Amino acid sequence: MKNRLEEIRKERGITQAELANILEVSRQTIGSLENGRYNPSILLAFKIAAYFQLTIEEIFIYEEGEEDGKK
């Protein structure tokens, strides 16, 4: 799953550490999300969307075929 988390975070002038603190996760979790190494839990996705006042779909981009390894 792709995402715009890094882009949105930087537009708002927030560091990875600040966002991690707000969301009560590690900075490494934010880095892994931004690099696409980790997909958030649904709860974390909702927390991120609520914090930025965006929809989940505006941050996280699902592409067809991902669940079966095609992309």
TrEMBL record:
The keyword DNA-binding applies. The keyword 4Fe-4S does not apply. It comes from the Bacteria. It comes from Aedoeadaptatus acetigenes. Keywords: DNA-binding. InterPro entries: Cro/C1-type_HTH, Lambda_DNA-bd_dom_sf. Residues 5-59 form the HTH cro/C1-type domain. This is Helix-turn-helix transcriptional regulator.
